[in-house]
Protein backbone atom coordinates (compact mmCIF):
# COMPACT_ATOMS: atom_id res chain seq x y z
CA UNK A 1 0.00 0.00 0.00
CA UNK A 2 1.32 3.51 -0.77
CA UNK A 3 1.70 6.19 1.89
CA UNK A 4 -1.65 7.72 2.83
CA UNK A 5 -3.39 10.15 5.17
CA UNK A 6 -7.03 9.65 6.15
CA UNK A 7 -9.49 11.33 8.49
CA UNK A 8 -10.73 9.01 11.22
CA UNK A 9 -12.73 9.04 14.44
CA UNK A 10 -10.52 8.38 17.47
CA UNK A 11 -12.48 7.91 20.70
CA UNK A 12 -15.07 10.36 19.41
CA UNK A 13 -12.54 12.97 18.29
CA UNK A 14 -11.66 13.80 14.65
CA UNK A 15 -8.11 12.75 13.85
CA UNK A 16 -5.68 12.10 11.03
CA UNK A 17 -4.08 8.71 10.53
CA UNK A 18 -0.75 8.88 8.71
CA UNK A 19 0.63 5.69 7.17
CA UNK A 20 3.66 4.82 5.04
CA UNK A 21 4.26 2.03 2.55
CA UNK A 22 6.73 0.40 4.95
CA UNK A 23 4.08 0.10 7.64
CA UNK A 24 4.72 3.08 9.95
CA UNK A 25 1.61 4.77 11.36
CA UNK A 26 0.75 7.78 13.49
CA UNK A 27 -2.53 9.26 14.71
CA UNK A 28 -2.93 13.01 15.37
CA UNK A 29 -6.00 14.49 17.06
CA UNK A 30 -7.34 17.79 15.78
CA UNK A 31 -7.99 18.52 19.45
CA UNK A 32 -4.74 20.10 20.57
CA UNK A 33 -2.84 18.78 17.51
CA UNK A 34 -1.93 15.92 19.81
CA UNK A 35 -0.11 12.89 18.46
CA UNK A 36 -1.65 9.94 20.34
CA UNK A 37 -0.07 6.99 18.54
CA UNK A 38 3.12 6.12 16.66
CA UNK A 39 4.12 2.67 15.52
CA UNK A 40 7.32 2.16 13.49
CA UNK A 41 7.25 -0.44 10.67
CA UNK A 42 6.64 -3.90 12.12
CA UNK A 43 7.03 -2.60 15.65
CA UNK A 44 4.85 -2.06 18.71
CA UNK A 45 3.31 1.21 19.86
CA UNK A 46 5.99 3.63 21.11
CA UNK A 47 3.81 6.34 22.69
CA UNK A 48 1.99 5.86 25.99
CA UNK A 49 -1.73 6.63 26.07
CA UNK A 50 -3.58 6.19 29.35
CA UNK A 51 -6.49 3.78 29.25
CA UNK A 52 -8.35 6.31 31.42
CA UNK A 53 -7.65 9.34 29.21
CA UNK A 54 -10.61 11.69 28.68
CA UNK A 55 -11.51 12.55 25.09
CA UNK A 56 -14.42 14.92 25.73
CA UNK A 57 -12.33 18.09 25.42
CA UNK A 58 -12.73 19.00 29.08
CA UNK A 59 -9.04 18.37 29.73
CA UNK A 60 -5.92 17.46 27.82
CA UNK A 61 -5.66 13.83 26.75
CA UNK A 62 -3.30 11.97 29.08
CA UNK A 63 -0.58 10.55 26.87
CA UNK A 64 0.85 10.91 23.38
CA UNK A 65 2.48 14.28 22.75
CA UNK A 66 0.52 17.24 24.17
CA UNK A 67 1.65 20.68 22.98
CA UNK A 68 2.40 23.04 25.89
CA UNK A 69 2.14 26.76 25.05
CA UNK A 70 2.49 29.61 26.03
CA UNK A 71 3.28 28.39 29.53
CA UNK A 72 4.98 25.26 30.78
CA UNK A 73 3.44 23.59 33.85
CA UNK A 74 2.31 26.04 36.53
CA UNK A 75 5.22 28.42 35.99
CA UNK A 76 3.01 31.48 35.51
CA UNK A 77 -0.59 32.73 35.81
CA UNK A 78 -2.09 30.74 32.93
CA UNK A 79 -3.76 27.32 33.06
CA UNK A 80 -1.27 24.53 33.62
CA UNK A 81 0.74 23.90 30.42
CA UNK A 82 -1.10 26.74 28.69
CA UNK A 83 -4.31 26.53 26.71
CA UNK A 84 -3.64 25.12 23.23
CA UNK A 85 -3.84 21.48 24.39
CA UNK A 86 -7.63 21.71 24.48
CA UNK A 87 -8.13 24.01 21.49
CA UNK A 88 -9.37 22.83 18.08
CA UNK A 89 -6.66 22.96 15.39
CA UNK A 90 -7.24 22.98 11.64
CA UNK A 91 -5.46 20.91 9.00
CA UNK A 92 -3.17 23.21 7.01
CA UNK A 93 -1.17 20.75 4.89
CA UNK A 94 -1.22 17.05 3.99
CA UNK A 95 1.51 15.48 1.90
CA UNK A 96 2.73 11.98 1.08
CA UNK A 97 5.70 10.71 -0.90
CA UNK A 98 7.44 7.49 -1.80
CA UNK A 99 7.54 6.42 1.83
CA UNK A 100 6.65 9.35 4.03
CA UNK A 101 3.51 11.06 5.28
CA UNK A 102 3.35 14.62 6.63
CA UNK A 103 0.60 16.78 8.06
CA UNK A 104 0.65 20.33 9.44
CA UNK A 105 -2.01 21.52 11.88
CA UNK A 106 -2.59 25.16 12.83
CA UNK A 107 -4.27 27.20 15.53
CA UNK A 108 -4.47 30.93 16.21
CA UNK A 109 -5.50 33.22 19.04
CA UNK A 110 -9.16 33.73 19.83
CA UNK A 111 -11.14 36.10 21.99
CA UNK A 112 -10.97 33.50 24.77
CA UNK A 113 -7.16 33.13 24.56
CA UNK A 114 -6.65 36.90 24.44
CA UNK A 115 -8.67 37.21 27.65
CA UNK A 116 -6.04 34.95 29.29
CA UNK A 117 -2.96 36.05 27.36
CA UNK A 118 -3.33 39.33 25.43
CA UNK A 119 -1.31 38.47 22.33
CA UNK A 120 -2.00 37.53 18.72
CA UNK A 121 -0.19 34.41 17.60
CA UNK A 122 -0.26 31.47 15.23
CA UNK A 123 1.01 27.97 15.97
CA UNK A 124 1.76 25.21 13.51
CA UNK A 125 2.66 21.64 14.41
CA UNK A 126 4.09 19.50 11.62
CA UNK A 127 4.02 15.74 12.11
CA UNK A 128 6.03 13.53 9.74
CA UNK A 129 6.70 9.80 9.68
CA UNK A 130 9.33 8.09 7.54
CA UNK A 131 10.76 4.59 8.04
CA UNK A 132 11.35 4.26 11.83
CA UNK A 133 11.35 8.02 12.45
CA UNK A 134 8.83 10.47 13.89
CA UNK A 135 9.47 14.21 13.44
CA UNK A 136 7.51 16.86 15.33
CA UNK A 137 8.12 20.54 14.62
CA UNK A 138 6.39 23.36 16.47
CA UNK A 139 6.43 26.84 14.91
CA UNK A 140 5.33 29.95 16.80
CA UNK A 141 4.54 33.18 14.92
CA UNK A 142 4.19 36.50 16.73
CA UNK A 143 1.33 38.22 14.91
CA UNK A 144 1.15 40.99 17.51
CA UNK A 145 2.48 44.54 17.27
CA UNK A 146 4.88 44.07 20.18
CA UNK A 147 7.25 41.37 21.45
CA UNK A 148 6.01 38.56 23.66
CA UNK A 149 7.71 35.78 25.62
CA UNK A 150 6.60 32.21 26.16
CA UNK A 151 7.64 28.81 27.42
CA UNK A 152 6.71 25.65 25.55
CA UNK A 153 7.21 21.90 25.31
CA UNK A 154 6.38 18.80 23.36
CA UNK A 155 5.23 16.75 26.36
CA UNK A 156 6.20 13.36 24.91
CA UNK A 157 4.93 10.27 26.77
CA UNK A 158 7.02 7.23 25.78
CA UNK A 159 5.59 3.76 26.22
CA UNK A 160 8.09 1.52 28.00
CA UNK A 161 7.80 -2.11 29.02
CA UNK A 162 9.01 -1.49 32.56
CA UNK A 163 10.23 1.94 33.66
CA UNK A 164 12.56 0.57 36.33
CA UNK A 165 14.41 -1.39 33.64
CA UNK A 166 14.72 1.66 31.37
CA UNK A 167 17.78 3.90 31.21
CA UNK A 168 18.40 7.28 29.60
CA UNK A 169 21.83 8.04 28.20
CA UNK A 170 23.17 11.46 27.20
CA UNK A 171 22.31 13.63 30.21
CA UNK A 172 25.61 13.24 32.08
CA UNK A 173 27.41 16.43 33.01
CA UNK A 174 24.31 18.61 32.70
CA UNK A 175 22.62 20.81 35.28
CA UNK A 176 19.00 20.16 36.09
CA UNK A 177 16.28 21.72 38.17
CA UNK A 178 14.69 19.11 40.42
CA UNK A 179 11.01 19.79 40.98
CA UNK A 180 10.89 17.01 43.59
CA UNK A 181 13.49 18.94 45.59
CA UNK A 182 11.83 22.38 45.71
CA UNK A 183 13.33 23.29 42.33
CA UNK A 184 16.92 23.14 43.53
CA UNK A 185 19.66 22.97 40.93
CA UNK A 186 21.68 19.75 40.70
CA UNK A 187 24.46 18.41 38.49
CA UNK A 188 24.05 15.04 36.77
CA UNK A 189 27.29 13.12 37.22
CA UNK A 190 26.01 9.65 36.37
CA UNK A 191 26.58 7.79 33.12
CA UNK A 192 22.88 6.93 32.81
CA UNK A 193 19.63 8.08 34.40
CA UNK A 194 17.59 5.33 36.03
CA UNK A 195 13.98 5.89 37.10
CA UNK A 196 13.62 4.44 40.59
CA UNK A 197 11.31 6.96 42.26
CA UNK A 198 9.28 10.05 41.39
CA UNK A 199 11.29 11.99 38.81
CA UNK A 200 10.61 15.53 37.63
CA UNK A 201 13.71 17.20 36.20
CA UNK A 202 14.35 20.06 33.81
CA UNK A 203 17.76 19.59 32.20
CA UNK A 204 19.30 22.79 30.84
CA UNK A 205 21.16 23.42 27.60
CA UNK A 206 20.87 19.92 26.18
CA UNK A 207 22.78 19.86 22.90
CA UNK A 208 23.53 16.15 22.43
CA UNK A 209 21.21 13.33 21.30
CA UNK A 210 19.68 11.08 23.94
CA UNK A 211 19.18 7.33 23.95
CA UNK A 212 16.40 5.57 25.85
CA UNK A 213 17.42 1.93 26.30
CA UNK A 214 15.17 -0.99 27.15
CA UNK A 215 15.79 -4.74 27.14
CA UNK A 216 16.21 -5.39 23.43
CA UNK A 217 15.26 -2.07 21.88
CA UNK A 218 16.26 1.58 22.05
CA UNK A 219 14.87 4.94 21.05
CA UNK A 220 17.06 7.77 19.82
CA UNK A 221 15.89 11.30 20.64
CA UNK A 222 17.20 14.50 19.11
CA UNK A 223 15.96 18.07 19.29
CA UNK A 224 16.61 21.46 17.73
CA UNK A 225 15.42 24.87 18.86
CA UNK A 226 14.38 23.53 22.26
CA UNK A 227 17.24 23.93 24.75
CA UNK A 228 15.82 21.99 27.70
CA UNK A 229 14.76 18.40 28.29
CA UNK A 230 12.14 17.49 30.87
CA UNK A 231 12.18 13.96 32.31
CA UNK A 232 9.07 13.02 34.27
CA UNK A 233 7.55 9.99 35.91
CA UNK A 234 4.96 10.48 38.68
CA UNK A 235 5.73 7.17 40.42
CA UNK A 236 3.25 5.31 42.57
CA UNK A 237 1.77 7.88 44.96
CA UNK A 238 1.31 10.73 42.50
CA UNK A 239 0.10 8.39 39.77
CA UNK A 240 -2.64 7.09 42.06
CA UNK A 241 -3.80 10.68 42.58
CA UNK A 242 -4.29 11.25 38.84
CA UNK A 243 -7.88 10.40 37.91
CA UNK A 244 -6.97 9.81 34.26
CA UNK A 245 -4.14 7.33 34.99
CA UNK A 246 -4.41 3.69 36.10
CA UNK A 247 -2.71 3.09 39.44
CA UNK A 248 0.15 1.12 37.89
CA UNK A 249 0.36 3.23 34.74
CA UNK A 250 3.57 4.89 35.88
CA UNK A 251 5.41 1.62 35.29
CA UNK A 252 4.80 1.76 31.55
CA UNK A 253 5.37 5.44 30.75
CA UNK A 254 8.27 7.85 30.75
CA UNK A 255 8.08 11.45 29.61
CA UNK A 256 11.15 12.78 27.79
CA UNK A 257 10.11 16.22 26.61
CA UNK A 258 11.71 18.75 24.29
CA UNK A 259 11.18 22.04 26.09
CA UNK A 260 11.96 25.73 26.39
CA UNK A 261 11.44 26.38 30.09
CA UNK A 262 14.48 27.71 31.94
CA UNK A 263 14.92 30.73 29.65
CA UNK A 264 11.62 31.88 28.07
CA UNK A 265 11.67 32.53 24.33
CA UNK A 266 11.54 36.24 23.52
CA UNK A 267 9.89 36.73 20.14
CA UNK A 268 9.77 40.07 18.36
CA UNK A 269 6.65 41.24 16.54
CA UNK A 270 6.26 39.64 13.13
CA UNK A 271 8.94 37.01 13.69
CA UNK A 272 8.73 33.26 14.17
CA UNK A 273 10.45 30.58 16.25
CA UNK A 274 10.54 26.84 15.79
CA UNK A 275 11.58 23.80 17.80
CA UNK A 276 11.77 20.18 16.73
CA UNK A 277 11.89 16.77 18.37
CA UNK A 278 12.84 13.63 16.45
CA UNK A 279 12.28 10.06 17.68
CA UNK A 280 14.02 7.14 15.97
CA UNK A 281 13.14 3.54 16.87
CA UNK A 282 16.27 1.38 17.01
From TrEMBL:
It catalyses: alpha-D-glucose 6-phosphate = beta-D-glucose 6-phosphate. InterPro entries: Aldose_1/G6P_1-epimerase (IPR008183), G6P_1-epimerase (IPR025532), Gal_mutarotase_sf_dom (IPR011013), GH-type_carb-bd (IPR014718). The keyword Isomerase applies. Keywords: Isomerase. It comes from the Bacteria. Its EC number is 5.1.3.15. GO terms for molecular function: isomerase activity. Belongs to the glucose-6-phosphate 1-epimerase family. This is Putative glucose-6-phosphate 1-epimerase.
